[in-house]
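User: I'm writing a short report section on ligand binding and want a predicted complex to refer to. Could you take this sequence and magnesium ion and write out the structure as C-alpha coordinates? A short remark afterwards would be nice.
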Amino acid sequence: MTVLELREVKRHFGGVKAVDGVSLKVASGQVTGLIGPNGSGKSTLVNLIAGVLAVGEGDITLDGKSLIKLTADEVARCGVARTFQNIRLLPEASVLDNVVIGFYRHERSPLYASLLGLPSSRRETRELREQGRALLARFGLAEYEQVPAGGLAYGYQRRVEMARAVASAPQVLLLDEPVAGMNDVEARSLGQIFAQLAREGMAVLVIEHNTRFVAELCSQVHVLDGGRLIAHGSPQEVMRDPAVVAAYLGG
Ligand SMILES: Nc1ncnc2c1ncn2[C@@H]1O[C@H](COP(=O)(O)OP(=O)(O)OP(=O)(O)O)[C@@H](O)[C@H]1O
Ligand SMILES: [Mg+2]
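Assistant: Sure. The C-alpha coordinates for the complex follow:
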Protein backbone atom coordinates (compact mmCIF):
# COMPACT_ATOMS: atom_id res chain seq x y z
CA MET A 1 0.00 0.00 0.00
CA THR A 2 1.57 3.23 -1.20
CA VAL A 3 0.80 6.44 0.56
CA LEU A 4 1.79 9.90 -0.49
CA GLU A 5 1.42 12.18 2.50
CA LEU A 6 1.57 15.96 2.80
CA ARG A 7 2.02 17.45 6.24
CA GLU A 8 1.40 21.15 6.81
CA VAL A 9 2.84 22.03 3.43
CA LYS A 10 3.29 25.73 2.70
CA ARG A 11 4.48 27.65 -0.32
CA HIS A 12 4.09 31.38 -0.57
CA PHE A 13 4.97 33.63 -3.51
CA GLY A 14 5.71 37.00 -1.98
CA GLY A 15 2.46 37.91 -0.32
CA VAL A 16 0.44 35.21 -2.11
CA LYS A 17 -0.18 32.18 0.11
CA ALA A 18 -0.56 29.77 -2.81
CA VAL A 19 -0.41 26.70 -0.54
CA ASP A 20 -0.89 27.49 3.10
CA GLY A 21 -0.58 24.54 5.47
CA VAL A 22 -2.06 21.62 3.55
CA SER A 23 -2.14 18.11 5.02
CA LEU A 24 -3.60 15.24 3.02
CA LYS A 25 -2.98 11.64 1.96
CA VAL A 26 -3.19 10.01 -1.43
CA ALA A 27 -3.43 6.23 -1.10
CA SER A 28 -2.88 3.47 -3.62
CA GLY A 29 -5.90 1.64 -4.99
CA GLN A 30 -8.08 4.69 -5.29
CA VAL A 31 -8.59 7.91 -7.19
CA THR A 32 -8.38 10.94 -4.92
CA GLY A 33 -9.86 14.22 -6.10
CA LEU A 34 -8.48 17.71 -5.59
CA ILE A 35 -10.89 20.52 -6.38
CA GLY A 36 -11.13 24.21 -5.70
CA PRO A 37 -11.78 27.54 -7.42
CA ASN A 38 -9.29 29.08 -9.86
CA GLY A 39 -6.14 30.18 -8.11
CA SER A 40 -6.81 28.07 -5.01
CA GLY A 41 -3.38 26.39 -5.20
CA LYS A 42 -4.09 23.07 -6.93
CA SER A 43 -1.36 23.24 -9.58
CA THR A 44 1.09 24.66 -7.07
CA LEU A 45 0.42 21.65 -4.87
CA VAL A 46 1.18 19.27 -7.73
CA ASN A 47 4.36 21.18 -8.54
CA LEU A 48 5.44 20.93 -4.91
CA ILE A 49 4.84 17.17 -4.87
CA ALA A 50 6.66 16.71 -8.17
CA GLY A 51 9.70 18.65 -6.97
CA VAL A 52 9.26 21.39 -9.57
CA LEU A 53 8.72 23.98 -6.85
CA ALA A 54 10.53 24.04 -3.54
CA VAL A 55 8.43 23.46 -0.45
CA GLY A 56 8.49 26.42 1.93
CA GLU A 57 7.47 24.60 5.09
CA GLY A 58 6.14 21.15 5.95
CA ASP A 59 6.95 17.75 4.50
CA ILE A 60 5.88 15.50 1.64
CA THR A 61 6.58 11.79 2.01
CA LEU A 62 6.13 8.72 -0.14
CA ASP A 63 5.85 5.64 2.04
CA GLY A 64 7.58 7.57 4.78
CA LYS A 65 10.48 8.83 2.66
CA SER A 66 10.70 12.59 2.38
CA LEU A 67 10.64 13.97 -1.16
CA ILE A 68 11.12 17.65 -0.45
CA LYS A 69 14.90 17.79 -0.86
CA LEU A 70 14.82 15.89 -4.16
CA THR A 71 14.97 17.30 -7.67
CA ALA A 72 12.05 16.75 -10.04
CA ASP A 73 14.01 13.96 -11.77
CA GLU A 74 14.67 12.25 -8.48
CA VAL A 75 11.03 12.49 -7.47
CA ALA A 76 10.07 10.92 -10.81
CA ARG A 77 12.54 8.10 -10.18
CA CYS A 78 10.88 7.49 -6.83
CA GLY A 79 7.73 6.67 -8.78
CA VAL A 80 5.78 9.91 -8.96
CA ALA A 81 4.53 10.81 -12.44
CA ARG A 82 2.47 13.78 -13.47
CA THR A 83 0.75 15.48 -16.34
CA PHE A 84 0.61 19.24 -16.82
CA GLN A 85 -2.31 21.63 -16.93
CA ASN A 86 -0.91 22.80 -20.26
CA ILE A 87 0.04 19.95 -22.54
CA ARG A 88 3.76 19.35 -22.92
CA LEU A 89 4.61 16.94 -25.71
CA LEU A 90 7.28 16.81 -28.38
CA PRO A 91 4.96 18.00 -31.17
CA GLU A 92 7.19 16.84 -34.05
CA ALA A 93 7.81 13.37 -32.60
CA SER A 94 5.40 10.52 -33.24
CA VAL A 95 2.76 9.56 -30.73
CA LEU A 96 4.65 6.33 -30.03
CA ASP A 97 7.97 8.12 -29.45
CA ASN A 98 6.29 10.53 -27.07
CA VAL A 99 5.04 7.59 -25.01
CA VAL A 100 8.30 5.63 -25.19
CA ILE A 101 10.06 8.62 -23.62
CA GLY A 102 7.97 7.92 -20.54
CA PHE A 103 9.70 4.57 -19.99
CA TYR A 104 12.96 6.27 -19.20
CA ARG A 105 12.22 7.05 -15.59
CA HIS A 106 14.79 4.47 -14.49
CA GLU A 107 17.28 5.15 -17.23
CA ARG A 108 20.60 6.81 -16.72
CA SER A 109 21.72 6.41 -20.32
CA PRO A 110 21.00 9.40 -22.55
CA LEU A 111 17.43 9.23 -23.69
CA TYR A 112 17.93 10.41 -27.20
CA ALA A 113 20.75 7.99 -27.90
CA SER A 114 18.32 5.21 -27.16
CA LEU A 115 15.55 6.70 -29.23
CA LEU A 116 17.91 7.05 -32.16
CA GLY A 117 18.56 3.33 -31.96
CA LEU A 118 22.27 3.23 -31.16
CA PRO A 119 23.53 -0.38 -31.34
CA SER A 120 23.76 -1.09 -27.63
CA SER A 121 20.18 -0.23 -27.06
CA ARG A 122 18.40 -1.47 -30.16
CA ARG A 123 16.85 -4.52 -28.54
CA GLU A 124 15.80 -2.57 -25.50
CA THR A 125 14.27 0.01 -27.80
CA ARG A 126 12.29 -2.64 -29.66
CA GLU A 127 10.91 -4.01 -26.41
CA LEU A 128 9.99 -0.55 -25.21
CA ARG A 129 8.21 0.17 -28.46
CA GLU A 130 6.14 -2.98 -27.99
CA GLN A 131 5.24 -1.88 -24.49
CA GLY A 132 4.51 1.58 -25.83
CA ARG A 133 2.07 0.11 -28.35
CA ALA A 134 0.26 -1.69 -25.56
CA LEU A 135 -0.15 1.60 -23.74
CA LEU A 136 -1.37 3.32 -26.87
CA ALA A 137 -4.03 0.65 -27.21
CA ARG A 138 -5.06 1.16 -23.63
CA PHE A 139 -5.49 4.89 -24.18
CA GLY A 140 -7.33 4.46 -27.49
CA LEU A 141 -4.39 5.78 -29.50
CA ALA A 142 -3.34 2.68 -31.48
CA GLU A 143 -4.27 4.08 -34.87
CA TYR A 144 -2.25 7.27 -34.29
CA GLU A 145 1.05 5.56 -33.47
CA GLN A 146 3.04 7.21 -36.27
CA VAL A 147 1.26 10.57 -36.31
CA PRO A 148 3.22 13.60 -35.01
CA ALA A 149 1.78 14.25 -31.57
CA GLY A 150 1.32 17.94 -32.34
CA GLY A 151 -1.07 17.06 -35.16
CA LEU A 152 -3.60 15.34 -32.93
CA ALA A 153 -6.78 16.92 -31.65
CA TYR A 154 -6.46 18.39 -28.18
CA GLY A 155 -8.23 15.55 -26.36
CA TYR A 156 -5.92 13.03 -27.98
CA GLN A 157 -2.82 15.01 -27.08
CA ARG A 158 -3.99 14.80 -23.49
CA ARG A 159 -4.27 11.04 -23.87
CA VAL A 160 -0.70 10.87 -25.18
CA GLU A 161 0.48 12.83 -22.19
CA MET A 162 -1.31 10.46 -19.83
CA ALA A 163 0.04 7.38 -21.61
CA ARG A 164 3.54 8.83 -21.28
CA ALA A 165 3.06 9.40 -17.56
CA VAL A 166 1.77 5.85 -17.08
CA ALA A 167 4.69 4.42 -19.09
CA SER A 168 7.01 5.05 -16.17
CA ALA A 169 4.91 2.58 -14.10
CA PRO A 170 4.54 5.13 -11.33
CA GLN A 171 3.25 4.37 -7.87
CA VAL A 172 1.68 7.82 -7.80
CA LEU A 173 0.04 9.54 -10.75
CA LEU A 174 -0.76 13.26 -10.52
CA LEU A 175 -3.21 14.51 -13.16
CA ASP A 176 -3.70 18.27 -13.44
CA GLU A 177 -7.04 18.83 -15.17
CA PRO A 178 -6.69 15.79 -17.45
CA VAL A 179 -10.17 16.07 -18.95
CA ALA A 180 -10.40 19.86 -19.24
CA GLY A 181 -12.05 20.79 -22.53
CA MET A 182 -13.36 17.28 -23.15
CA ASN A 183 -17.00 16.39 -23.50
CA ASP A 184 -18.72 14.11 -20.98
CA VAL A 185 -18.30 10.99 -23.12
CA GLU A 186 -14.54 11.52 -23.59
CA ALA A 187 -14.11 12.43 -19.94
CA ARG A 188 -15.95 9.36 -18.75
CA SER A 189 -13.92 7.04 -20.96
CA LEU A 190 -10.70 8.47 -19.52
CA GLY A 191 -12.15 8.28 -16.04
CA GLN A 192 -12.57 4.54 -16.56
CA ILE A 193 -8.87 4.25 -17.39
CA PHE A 194 -7.93 6.16 -14.22
CA ALA A 195 -10.18 3.91 -12.15
CA GLN A 196 -8.56 0.83 -13.69
CA LEU A 197 -5.06 2.16 -12.95
CA ALA A 198 -6.11 2.66 -9.34
CA ARG A 199 -7.54 -0.85 -9.16
CA GLU A 200 -4.18 -2.13 -10.37
CA GLY A 201 -2.59 -0.45 -7.37
CA MET A 202 -1.68 3.07 -8.40
CA ALA A 203 -2.33 6.07 -6.18
CA VAL A 204 -4.06 8.57 -8.46
CA LEU A 205 -4.62 12.24 -7.68
CA VAL A 206 -6.92 14.08 -10.08
CA ILE A 207 -7.41 17.83 -10.21
CA GLU A 208 -10.65 18.67 -11.92
CA HIS A 209 -13.26 21.42 -12.03
CA ASN A 210 -16.07 19.19 -13.28
CA THR A 211 -17.63 18.13 -9.99
CA ARG A 212 -19.83 15.49 -11.60
CA PHE A 213 -16.74 13.80 -13.04
CA VAL A 214 -15.05 13.95 -9.63
CA ALA A 215 -18.13 12.56 -7.89
CA GLU A 216 -18.27 9.57 -10.23
CA LEU A 217 -14.58 8.79 -10.06
CA CYS A 218 -13.18 9.67 -6.65
CA SER A 219 -13.58 7.93 -3.33
CA GLN A 220 -12.06 10.86 -1.43
CA VAL A 221 -12.08 14.53 -2.37
CA HIS A 222 -10.04 17.40 -0.92
CA VAL A 223 -11.15 20.97 -1.46
CA LEU A 224 -8.71 23.88 -1.59
CA ASP A 225 -9.63 27.52 -1.28
CA GLY A 226 -7.07 30.29 -0.98
CA GLY A 227 -4.30 27.72 -0.42
CA ARG A 228 -6.07 26.06 2.49
CA LEU A 229 -7.99 22.81 2.71
CA ILE A 230 -11.56 23.70 3.53
CA ALA A 231 -13.11 20.23 3.30
CA HIS A 232 -12.37 16.59 2.64
CA GLY A 233 -14.38 13.40 2.55
CA SER A 234 -16.54 11.48 0.12
CA PRO A 235 -17.74 13.46 -2.90
CA GLN A 236 -21.24 13.49 -1.43
CA GLU A 237 -20.05 14.86 1.90
CA VAL A 238 -17.86 17.48 0.31
CA MET A 239 -20.38 18.77 -2.22
CA ARG A 240 -22.94 19.60 0.42
CA ASP A 241 -20.44 21.17 2.80
CA PRO A 242 -21.51 24.82 3.26
CA ALA A 243 -17.89 26.04 3.11
CA VAL A 244 -17.45 24.34 -0.28
CA VAL A 245 -20.70 25.71 -1.63
CA ALA A 246 -19.68 29.19 -0.48
CA ALA A 247 -16.19 28.91 -2.02
CA TYR A 248 -17.64 27.97 -5.38
CA LEU A 249 -20.38 30.56 -5.37
CA GLY A 250 -17.94 33.20 -4.15
CA GLY A 251 -15.46 32.20 -6.86
N1 LIG B 1 5.30 30.98 -9.87
C1 LIG B 1 4.41 31.78 -9.27
N2 LIG B 1 4.73 33.02 -8.87
C2 LIG B 1 3.84 33.82 -8.25
N3 LIG B 1 2.58 33.45 -7.97
C3 LIG B 1 2.20 32.22 -8.34
C4 LIG B 1 3.08 31.33 -9.01
N4 LIG B 1 2.41 30.15 -9.26
C5 LIG B 1 1.18 30.33 -8.76
N5 LIG B 1 1.03 31.57 -8.22
C6 LIG B 1 -0.16 32.09 -7.56
O1 LIG B 1 -0.55 31.15 -6.59
C7 LIG B 1 -1.96 31.01 -6.55
C8 LIG B 1 -2.35 29.57 -6.82
O2 LIG B 1 -2.11 29.27 -8.19
P1 LIG B 1 -2.34 27.82 -8.80
O3 LIG B 1 -1.90 27.86 -10.21
O4 LIG B 1 -1.74 26.80 -7.92
O5 LIG B 1 -3.94 27.68 -8.72
P2 LIG B 1 -4.91 26.58 -9.32
O6 LIG B 1 -5.79 26.14 -8.20
O7 LIG B 1 -4.15 25.55 -10.04
O8 LIG B 1 -5.80 27.44 -10.33
P3 LIG B 1 -6.51 27.02 -11.74
O9 LIG B 1 -7.79 26.31 -11.36
O10 LIG B 1 -6.77 28.33 -12.39
O11 LIG B 1 -5.57 26.14 -12.50
C9 LIG B 1 -2.51 32.01 -7.56
O12 LIG B 1 -2.81 33.19 -6.87
C10 LIG B 1 -1.35 32.21 -8.50
O13 LIG B 1 -1.41 33.47 -9.11
MG1 LIG C 1 -4.12 24.91 -11.97
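A remark for your report: Strands lie at 3-13, 16-27, 30-35, 57-62, 65-66, 80-82, 172-176, 203-207, 220-225, 228-233. The chain has two domains: 1-79+170-251, 89-166.
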